[in-house]
Structure formats: structure tokens, C-alpha cells
Design brief:
single chain, mainly alpha, 3 strands, 67% helix
Length: 323
């Protein structure tokens, strides 16, 4: 469903391709078989991002914003790193209120700010008590105990440079795309030829995405001869009943939100590693929707006639590591 909200065309193809390409990823499956809250957080993050994209595409309505509030509240109760998704959704629906709003800029800005408060307000109402308890017990809203870890586990705080130059840290993060039949949910997955299947598909997807951006930029300027401007900046082409409002800005906001989800999660893992934590692969799982969209783009880039065959080959190779 969330993938279908992102797509402009072939929505059913995206809705089927994204979960299909994500299903065989080893850390995703192994985490799902362990008593962690990560699978729930991943599900809620995908739904929240889908709602944010829906609001960006079609504009904020009371019903859509109500669903945003519900999912934000549930997500805040799942894992602390859901705060990344909250920030992304907050920015996305605020931008949607600004882009789809009517009237003067000052009024639209005010409504955008009010709309943007909904995710965090819902999260605080639902889970604020829990994070306040963490702060009271440990001194940190996350509930982490870096001082205790230093004394009792022999762990050490690290600098940002030390983490970024640690090859083990990056091996753990790229383990999300390292197919293998042995390993753990924390990144120690034995490399397998299936790893190259995922990397190749990811590369094709990135290239396809860049091509789409370039082609979209060239085609984004509509024929405005005889067009009229409506209140709020909407442009109505002659003979059309559809008013188009900043389609390029909406697309850019959408792409920024999806990229920010992955980069924001990576930033939290860096901070975790700096404060005596480990470089845990499963903490990237709430970013599976953007990653899956890129992988699916690599499959669907082969066109309508060959995409089905490309997906079949991908699935045979990706699942083949378990044969």
C-alpha cells in the first residue's frame, strides 16, 4: 500500500514489487523470528511514510491527518528510533499543507505549522509518559546507560571520526543487503553470491531513479499558454478541470522525505555507536520502504514486458541462497 502511494503510474506493479524484493533479505527475516519490537516499528514506519506521501500527493484532509496521528502514536510506543519517522512525517505534512494551501503565504505558513504539530503531539500524548520514565530512571529519554556500559562492559565512547572510519561499522550497515544463510540480526551475516544480486538491483534502481528525475525535470514545465492562476498559486491549463499546484516541488519533497528516513536512521546508529553502543544492522529496518522502492525500481526499469521476468529472476537468485 505504501509503495503504491509513491508511484504515479503502474501502482499495482509497485505495490507487488516492493514487498517481493524485500521479503528474502536475510536480516529482515531473522529479526522477524526474534522477540524484538523492530518488525512492529518497521511496519508502522512504512505506514507512516505511506500516509505522509499520500498527504503530499493529494493534500491534507481531516481524515488523513487523523490516521497520521493514530500511526504516530502507535509508532512512538514501538521503538525510540521511530522519532526519525516522526520528524520526516512532520516535515512532509507541513510541506503538504504549505504546497496545497490556499490564500496568502502568511496564512498558509501558519496552517502548515499547525498541521506539522500533529505527529509529535499524538506521540507525546501516547508515549510521553514512557520516555519521561526513561529520563527519570536513566537520565536519557532513550533509556540507555552509556556510563554503566563503560564501567561494567568495558565499552568506550568513540568520536564521530572514529565511528565513521571504522570498517566494522559500515560492514554492519551494509549487512542489510548481504544475503547469507548464517549469521545474526546484528550484522554478522556471512557473505554470499546473493549479496551481489541485491547490490546489482540496487544500482540499477538508483540509475533508473536518476533517469526519471532528469526526464521529469525536462517535462515538468507545462504549456501555460492560455492558462489561468487560481487562489493559492494553482495553475489551470486551458480546457482542463484539473488544477495542478507545484508538481515538481511535491516530487522533490517526496524524494527528500524518503531519503531523510534512511539517512536519519543512519545518523541515530552513528550516535548510538559513539555512546558505547554497537553498530546494529536491525536499527536500519524502519528504512526498508525507501530501500525497497529503489530495489523495485531496479526490477521495474526493464519495462512492462520484461519486468515480470526480471522480478522472477531476482526472486530465484535471492531466495536461492537458502536452497
Amino acid at each position: 500500500w505504501a509503495a503504491a502511494q509513491v508511484a504515479r503510474s503502474r501502482r499495482w506493479a509497485w505495490a507487488l514489487a516492493v514487498p517481493a524484493v524485500l521479503a528474502p533479505i536475510t536480516p529482515f527475516m531473522t529479526t522477524g523470528g526474534v522477540a524484538y519490537s523492530d518488525p512492529l516499528s518497521t511496519l508502522l514506519a512504512a505506514v507512516a511514510l505511506g500516509l505522509a506521501v499520500l498527504v503530499l500527493r493529494r493534500g491534507p484532509t481531516p481524515g488523513r491527518l487523523a490516521w497520521v496521528a493514530v500511526v504516530s502514536a502507535l509508532g512512538a510506543l514501538s521503538r525510540g528510533n521511530f522519532v526519525v519517522t516522526l520528524i520526516v512525517v512532520t516535515a512532509a505534512i507541513g510541506a503538504a499543507a504549505l504546497l496545497h494551501g490556499r490564500g496568502r503565504l502568511a496564512g498558509r505558513l501558519g496552517r502548515a505549522v499547525g498541521t506539522a504539530t500533529i505527529p509529535f503531539a499524538a506521540a507525546l500524548l501516547a508515549a510521553g509518559w514512557f520516555y519521561r520514565r526513561n529520563t527519570r530512571l536513566s537520565g536519557s529519554w532513550t533509556g540507555g546507560h552509556p556510563d554503566w556500559s563503560e564501567v561494567n562492559l568495558g565499552r568506550r565512547r568513540r568520536t564521530l571520526e572514529g565511528v565513521l572510519h571504522d570498517s566494522g561499522f559500515w560492514r554492519a550497515q551494509t549487512a542489510l543487503l548481504r544475503q547469507g544463510t548464517r549469521g545474526s540480526v546484528d550484522g554478522r551475516v556471512t557473505a554470499h553470491w546473493g549479496h551481489w544480486v541485491l547490490l546489482a538491483t540496487l544500482g540499477i534502481g538508483l540509475i533508473a531513479g536518476l533517469v526519471w528525475l532528469v526526464r521529469g525535470a525536462r517535462r515538468s514545465a507545462p504549456d501555460l499558454e492560455g492558462a489561468t492562476e487560481e487562489p493559492g498559486g494553482a495553475i489551470r491549463a486551458p480546457g482542463s478541470s484539473l488544477a495542478v499546484r507545484h508538481p515538481t516541488l511535491v516530487d522533490l519533497a517526496l524524494l527528500f522525505a524518503l531519503a531523510a528516513q534512511v539517512l536519519g536512521l543512519l545518523a541515530t546508529i552513528v550516535l548510538h555507536a559513539m555512546n558505547t553502543g554497537g553498530p546494529i544492522t536491525r536499527y536500519l529496518l524502519p528504512g526498508l520502504l525507501p530501500i525497497g522502492l529503489v530495489l523495485a525500481a531496479g526490477v521495474l526499469a526493464f519495462g512492462r514486458r520484461l519486468a515480470g521476468l526480471a522480478l522472477l529472476i531476482y526472486l530465484v537468485l535471492a531466495w536461492g541462497v537458502f536452497a
